[in-house]
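Subject — a protein and its fold

Tokens — whole-number codes for backbone shape
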Amino acid sequence: MNLKGKRALVMGVANNYSIAYGIAKALSDAGAELILTYASPVLLKRVLPIAEELGAKHCLECDVAKDYSIREMFNSVSKLWDSIDFLVHSIAYAPREELNAPFHECSRNGFLTAMDISVYSLVASLREAKALLKPGSAALTLSYYGGSKVVPHYGVMGVAKAALEASVRYLAHSLGEDGIRVNAISAGPIKTLSSAVIGGIGQMQKRIEKSAPLARNITLEDIAKSALYLLSDMSSGVTGETVYVDAGMNIMAY
């Protein structure tokens, strides 16, 4: 796939094992120009080597819990680019103690934090990005099976992912007349910095190897290739969808 001349803003690259990294690498390999964001100055040292590897000339700070930070980040983007072709939102967070506890014990603060960072940040980002998103542009976010079915130890993040998928549908509708597409990938479990705090990841992967139609776990490359499809003109008629990239595990009843 040739994406030379296209511009992609990737939010959420944490390290070389993160899903956002896999997508950013695929975009870069296809010829797209990148800008990466990072949440706070302490994380910049992680992102800079990745930016150098991928040829991203700019890294911009963006704390998605603060509207002014999102606004300032997009103001900075507008000074570098006159438009954005692709926006990748790979951001999710809930306090660790909320994930492995029974859901009925979820705190008000934990619930609101998960919704704010994992869901509203997509809405706020697209609101600020709209002036830069031209017709034919696309946004992509990352979900998980726990948004549609109960996954032990996932807790409030499952509810947040359900809200994220609903937000994708409503954003696809509200931005559709402007020619902007919004989709999500529901990726199977892989070992990342964020998934490490969820109990039972190893057991889930073993179950997938035994029960999934493809009889294997997915890779970053699997997710990245699907991301390229959803971001590029290859999916020009697709919006508001949550596409499962999980070796088919979501179709199984056991």
Notes: The mean pLDDT is 93.
